[in-house]
Amino acid sequence: MKAAIITAAGQRPIYGDMQEPVAGEGEEVIIVSAAALSNFSKSRSSGSHYSSDGVFPSAAGADGVGRTADGRRVYFALPQAPFGALAEKSLVSARQCVAIPDEVDDVTAAAIANPGMSAWAALVERAHLQPGETVLVNGATGTAGRIAVQLAKYLGAGKVIATGRNEAELQEVLQLGADVAIPFTLGPQHPDGVEQYEQALIAEFANGVNVVVDYLWGESARTIIVAIVKAVDDATPVRFVHVGGASGEDSIALPGAALRSSAIQLMGSGVKSVPFEKLLEAVRNTFESVVPAKLQIATRTAPLSAIEETWVNASNKPRVVITVP
């Protein structure tokens, strides 16, 4: 069968042939129709994600959409190495499949599953969002951030604050349901950026904030934490949920006093911090929310045969979905 094959850790996939999978007890062979090129899928496939199997050579792809041998249309996650989702067929535990509602097409299901899972798990499983609460989405202009904004409103948030570097794209996020947009410009070229961002946050936090869903980490996350310490009333809990590190900054210098002098609750959300069955449940809930919540996600498709150039040039927006065959 044809597949996007990664021959060694850190390498890009090549389009080639590999053996077909054979299902064992409790497993399903999936005839693949679509798989998204998410950051999670790419990093896990290349061996850089902490959940990577580290088996090479193997077909790339951490999740996808397809049909089982008996014709059921499903989303599947974390296939059995070396049979990834970017192949004509994949192999996965039957427990790691989620039925797809008829009203959600294959491309949309493949594209929205990962960002929907991350947003739903962060808001529901980790933050335990309550109706009427205020949510800040840090990195709201990314694909996952946009879904988080939409789901937060659908789940009953009273106010959603969207932050990000691109002011023009933040205006688009307002159209998706965000109530407030706060742009920021950070880095050595912008020496006043941190102070300006902090003051904008403090002004908004005077009205209260309950949940932060962070897709960036780095300086922007640190600034939010400091603003919480300065602006939020004594002993008022704020649940800060770290989901992704799109800023590329793996570590932040966080003063211990920031934790001692606030009731902030720092936590992560993702594979291993949330039970896997709960992550699959988050995918299922996202699929069921697509129509009633009118969830929007921009997509672009490319065939499996174009994986080599698509892998290199794929952007996070719109979400690239590889179609098979």
Q: What descriptors fit this protein?
A:
2 domains, alpha/beta, 24% strand, Rossmann fold, 16 strands, Quinone Oxidoreductase, Chain A, domain 1, 325 residues, 32% helix, elongated, seven-stranded mixed β-sheet, six-stranded parallel β-sheet
Report on this model:
- The longest helix is centred in the middle third of the chain and has 21 residues, at 106-126.
- 32% of the residues lie in helices and 24% in strands.
- Strand 5 (63-67) and strand 6 form a beta hairpin.
- The chain contains nine helices and 16 strands.
- It folds into two domains: 2-103 and 298-323, Medium-chain alcohol dehydrogenases, catalytic domain (Quinone Oxidoreductase, Chain A, domain 1, Alpha-Beta Complex), CATH 3.90.180; 114-268, Rossmann fold (3-Layer(aba) Sandwich).
- The strands form three sheets. Strands 3, 5, 6, 7, 8, 15 and 16 form a seven-stranded mixed sheet that branches.
- It is of the alpha/beta class and 325 residues long.
- The model has no long low-confidence stretch (mean pLDDT 95).
- The termini are close together.
- Helix 2 packs across helix 3.
